[in-house]
Amino acid sequence: MSASAPVQPVSKTPARWWRERSVHIAVVLWIVAMVAIFPLSHGGLPFNRPVLAKVPFLIQVFMLPFQLLFPLFLVGVTYLLTRRRAVPDLATRAPETRIATRETVWLWIYGVAVLALGQIVGRRMFGEGIGLHLNGSLFGATRTQSPEEVWFWAGYNFLFYAFIPYLVFRARGYTREALNLKSANLPNDTLVIGVVLILESALELTASGIFHLTGHQLLSGASLSFLVHLLGTGLPVMVFIYAILFPRYMRLTGSAATTVLLGALSYAALHIFEYWTVYDSAPHAVLSVLFVVLTFIGPGLIKSYLTLRTGNAWVHLWAYHAIAPHVTADTPLVVKIFGIR
Question: Model pTM?
Fold first, then answer.
């Protein structure tokens, strides 16, 4: 493992990725997933998503491809903002192939165990499994959570997805740079964060209930939402996927496009137990997996591309996660849970 990752020339534009086989496979699988929804659903979805309760089935399905458009737009913006900088060679931040393979496999075994344990512990303590989103995030709350449950959710995810993996890999000798946690170009990283954050926040705020809050609710709720979501989903995603797995994907595949796709799929995989998913039958389970992947692949793509272009996992956290959407969109949810008046 190199102590200091060298740089390579600026990689080819996202438009040229269409020539890669992994992208062709991803497009085919996307189409297959979209088509599979219809025979599995029989014209209805089993999910309890209050925000979409009155939205017809066909519109809910055909919303999925359109959800990709804005993340792809942000990919283009990110490329333009970073086209003149040297792009870090993330593959050199991972160990040699044999070790990278072993670390990747064991980290995912650990991740699956954490996901499963979260379902067991959450259901026994609160009646609902622990996922990477609070009940109510994105699609509206299906029940009332207590502040104690929210803090437990945040602590569980932070401890098992962020804190422990970080300590383990630091103990194995990986530097902050090797874990994508050190900026190689702070001025450009700051520019990317600012532009992407403004664009995403503008979109999120158009549909947010944040403007209905009082001044005290806004200030207190936004601060609290930032903190609990930073611990409960922001840092866990950053460390587990973009600090540890992402460089190893690059080492194992040697392809920027494939690495971005694997990062996006990994992001979706960590959300497999969302509060609205249903696993009471085989068709419902398959539908849940399909909708999780089709819903979260877009956000995963922009998070992955931001990390690829900057070599800095912090960029995606501040530009497209910790604040937008978890402050811009989820502050009203936190205000309600904590009873902020």
Answer: 0.94
